[in-house]
Amino acid sequence: MSILSTLGLFIITAIAEIVGCYLPYLWLKKSASVWILLPAAFSLALFAWLLSLHPTAAGRVYAAYGGVYVSVAILWLWGVDGIRPHLWDFVGMAITLLGMGMIMFAPR
């Protein structure tokens, strides 16, 4: 799997997880309809399935995915919640992405 396809799959996986967690948040905290839990459950099932598509050991995938998740969550904070990240948020994103790259793409 190429670097770009791996990153793309991680990004789509992170979006599925965040949506699956954000929708129940809307129900619990923002008085959204209980029906919002159906797409939330679907999104979390999609998240689990997407993680299974990577051709390497599950533990390595989960560890590396965490770095991409952090970055996508910060971008979600900005794009959906309307809160502009600070410089240190971006530094943290860079560090987690560097760690993800070392975990997934270092020679073995």
Automatic annotation (TrEMBL):
Pfam families: UPF0060. The lineage of its organism: Bacteria, Pseudomonadati, Pseudomonadota, Gammaproteobacteria, Pseudomonadales. The keyword Metal-binding does not apply. This is Uncharacterized protein. NCBIfam families: PRK02237.1. The keyword Membrane applies. HAMAP family: UPF0060. The chain crosses the membrane at residues 32-50, 62-80, 86-106. Keywords: Cell membrane, Membrane, Transmembrane, Transmembrane helix. It is found in: Cell membrane. It is a multi-pass membrane protein. One of its GO terms (cellular component) is plasma membrane. It comes from Ketobacter alkanivorans. Belongs to the UPF0060 family. Its main location: membrane.
